[in-house]
Specification:
199 residues, alpha+beta, 28% helix, 8-stranded antiparallel sheet, globular
Length: 199
Amino acid sequence: MVNQNKKVLYMKHYRQLIKLILAFLLGFSIAMPSVAKDDDTYDQDSILKDATEFFGTTTEGLAKLVEKAFKEQGRPNGYIKGEEASGAIGVGLRYGDGELTLKMGGGKKVYWTGPSIGFDFGGNASKVFILVYHLPSTEKIFQRYPGVDGSLYYLGGAGINYQQRGAIVLAPIRLGVGFRAGASVGYMSYTPKKTWVPF
């Protein structure tokens, strides 16, 4: 009789343990998709379509750069459509403004400016389409983003580079005549208000 009671007690504890493990696993599986759902990010086709409409033209270079960004960074959860002007003779400056849009909702006007130094010459005024990765909210855009060394790619009239701060990655795509390129280091500072001070 004692052994029978022990068996019943063991079975009862065993069932409770199984229920706890299942509850934990079920809760974990429900929580996980919210971290990286496709609904919160843009697919490659819709980004290429939006970029093509924004620039008013498509090139093989633009398509390849979008493909490259998706291959290296994955699916963006936002983008900025804007315009900028820049110039450099060794030391360079860049000013821009645009509208930030996040897939999960929300938009905000943003401004950016930044210095650079290096073997960098030229100037341009152009449209820019910035892919935004891992941005948790529109307010988190407002900080300084160093350029990632060796991240400038230029293909068929379009250029892209990466800027990163922690987990947040920005990938500006510029298209057209007057593209400014060179070997330089610098950063971009994104602000909620326009400023002429690049530092």
